[in-house]
Amino acid sequence: MSDDARRHWPTTPPRLVATDLDNTLLGPDEEVSPRTQRALAAAAEAGIAVVFVSARPVRRLRELSAHVAGHGVAICSNGAAVLDVGSDRVLTQAGMSAAEATRVVTLLRDAWGARNVHFATEHAAGFDKEAAFTESYVIPPGSRVADRIEDVLTDATLKLLVRTSLPWDQSFARQVADVIGDAGLVADSGAPGLGEISGTGVTKAATLGRWAADQGIGAEEVWAFGDAPNDLPMLRWAGTSFAVANAFPEVLEAATHRCPSNADDGVAAVLEHAVGLGSRR
Description:
Layout: H1 3-7, E1 16-19, H2 21-25, H3 34-45, E2 49-53, E3 73-76, E4 81-84, E5 89-93, H4 98-112, E6 117-123, E7 126-130, E8 144-146, E9 157-164, H5 172-180, E10 185-187, E11 195-198, H6 204-214, E12 222-226, H7 232-237, E13 240-244, H8 249-254, E14 257-259, H9 266-280
Parallel strand pairs: 1-2, 1-12, 2-3, 7-8, 12-13, 13-14
Antiparallel strand pairs: 3-4, 4-5, 6-7, 6-9, 9-11, 10-11
Helix pairs in contact: 3-9
């Protein structure tokens, strides 16, 4: 990242920083680096709230509880839930009903063939899947496995996940969206061959906007960070937005600013800048 790019970073500190996790705040090892830990702590001490806003489900936010200072809140499942990480309590959720999720499943099976699409669900209590669905992470204890996802649906599906055994390319999320239409909202977090479906109107931006308003914080007082297409609504909502250097091309184009990559602690660098602005004031 050039010094010239840094000179164009904002000169007024934010009240709130909203940051994606994977490939943004977290390093390539999916850990919070020592520099980022120090920057998060310094931001909290300076009175700058930092909220994690992630596609990660509830179950994969718990490991980061030590790094959510003050308010202790994280927005997860692409905006479908707000989690008090410290107490492990879901504060709000906007999940699909069993009927809504079933409608999406039926549309995809009808379009691509029942043998070719496989489903899983994330909900506040955990994770369930069809036997043929391949999961990239360790399946948590207590997860239910069924031949058909309808047999294990709850009335609050935070994310419906879909994979296909048919050939797919980088446009897979868009193909899913074309099939389901207004039955749900497809987010693209950059995970290869995975469709992530939420209820209509559920985005990181919508939930973040409501949470910020409850704290008396306006969009113009927010700095947001992201790397993937599912971050775009949040980056466009925030008064100031940063794309990490490793972001998708459309994210780099949409953000108002750029910062170093996640491998180079880009978010930490901007947090340090923000804390410095506050100390000079």
